[in-house]
Amino acid sequence: MSIEVGTIVPAKVGMHVSEIETPALIVDLDAFERNLEKMRDIARTHGVGLRAHAKAHKSADVAHRQLEIGGAHGFCCQKVSEAIALVDAGIKDILISNQIVSPSKIARLIDLSKRANLRVCVDDSENIIALSKAAVEGGIELGCLVEIDVGAGRCGVTPGRDAAELAHQIATAPNLRFDGLQAYHGPAQHCVDANERQSIFESVVVKVERTLTALKDQALECPIISGAGTGTFQKEAASGLFTELQAGTYCFMDASYMSVRNQEGGQEVPFENALFLLCSVMSAVRAGTVVCDGGHKSHAIDSGLPVLVDVEGAEYVGCNDEHGVINDPNNLLKLNDKVRLIPGHCDPTCNLHDTLIGVRNGLVETVWPVTARGKLW
Question: What value does the mean pLDDT take over residues 179-201?
């Protein structure tokens, strides 16, 4: 997508990286494309679909590349407004991997279903009644996935009989269609210890299988079992149980996911860092310490501080609204030097920026708007 004429942007196509206004999010396009290709190949090897989670980047341009070269067949969004922004940009197959319950949001969901292949997650009988009524009034058929609580303790009905009863209610409700199950365990994605992560996944499988047995008792088919994230997707892909993967961060990666370990103690997630916060040194008056212009208004720190790369011995150690403090014991950094930070958590970091700047061979190749920035309702 193009940037509106007159919009102030931190970079222009053809510009050298050193000329980019900071702080700015930059995407290493070579690493990004390798990540897309690797996920595509893993999904194909295991015969599962890739429903990439757009909340990671909120960018229609990234989504189109996931479709074109990354093997994605559709996307997840968390909010209706997020889905509207992507549908407006030509993305036509979306699962709202969340519950939509307020009348105004349901009305927008139904309206959007007339322009795209939309599904939504449910975990409550009352919500099913409201969705059915709205679908009838809107003259559309809406696909629904029953979300089961596989251990995260967040949304989701109890696996087994309770889930099957909701599925039956959907299957018999006017203008609704039971399409399958949502079985996503969020905390497992960032579980650093390999043995603990494997134990969690095994418990997820037990809960899904229990639900499938209960669905069979209701004579219901379950065409979709959707779940997984960047931290566990290889397990779901190889399970023979899940039909599609909802990983999102894999395309960019962040410092949190880089800390997830495998059985041998190495990096579990087989992707590269492609997203960086480019910052500039704005103060260097004290020996051993510099301050950059990347504070927590430009990157999320809920999963920890960012990781500074390319400067030997230097470490990002703290931040305020607009300032980032870097320990530089070797005094390598000078005023106005550029530094790259790997964000601790890429999803909320992307939501803080208007643009993603794609770079290759030291030059700006593209500038992508963060299409669904701020679409939180």
Answer: 95
Q: Are 97 and 75 in contact (CB under 8 A)?
A: no
Do 29-258 and 17-26+270-369 fall under one CATH topology?
Answer: no
Please give the pLDDT value at position 5. 46
Q: Give 271-306 pLDDT, tens digit per residue.
A: 999 999 999 999 999 999 999 999 999 999 999 999
Q: Specify the 3-state DSSP secondary structure of 146.
A: strand
Domain spans of the chain, in order of start: 17-26+270-369, 29-258
Give the whole-angstrom CA distance, residue 197 versus residue 295. 32
| Rounded percentage of the chain residues whose pLDDT exceeds 90 | 96
Phi first, then psi: give them for residue 13, nearest 5 degrees: -55, 135
Task: State the Cα angle at 280 between 279 and 285, rounded to 5°.
Answer: 135
On whether the 17-26+270-369 domain is CATH 2.40.37.20, my answer is yes
Question: Among 180, 166, 181, which Cα is nearest to 128's?
Answer: 166
Tokens of 161: 């009989």
* CATH code that applies to domain 29-258: 3.20.20.10
* Residue 101 burial by Cβ neighbours in a 10 Å radius (0-12, 13-18, 19+): middle
Identity of the amino acid at 65: R
Which pTM was predicted?
0.95
Q: Among 219, 239, 218, which Cα is nearest to 228's?
A: 239
Residue type, 95: L
β-strands 324-327, 315-319 pairing: antiparallel
The CA distance from 73 to 60, in Å, is 14
- The 10 Å Cβ neighbour count of residue 168 is 18
pLDDT in tens, 44-66: 999 999 999 999 999 999 999 99
Structure tokens at 317: 């150690």
Q: What six digits make up the tokens of 372? A: 């669904």
Residue 1 vs residues 47, 89, 276: alpha-carbon distances, Å: 31, 8, 21
- Structural contact between residues 333 and 364, judged by C-beta atoms closer than 8 angstroms: no
334's CB contacts (< 8 A; 6+ apart) are: 281, 284
Neighbours of 49 (CB within 10 A): 17
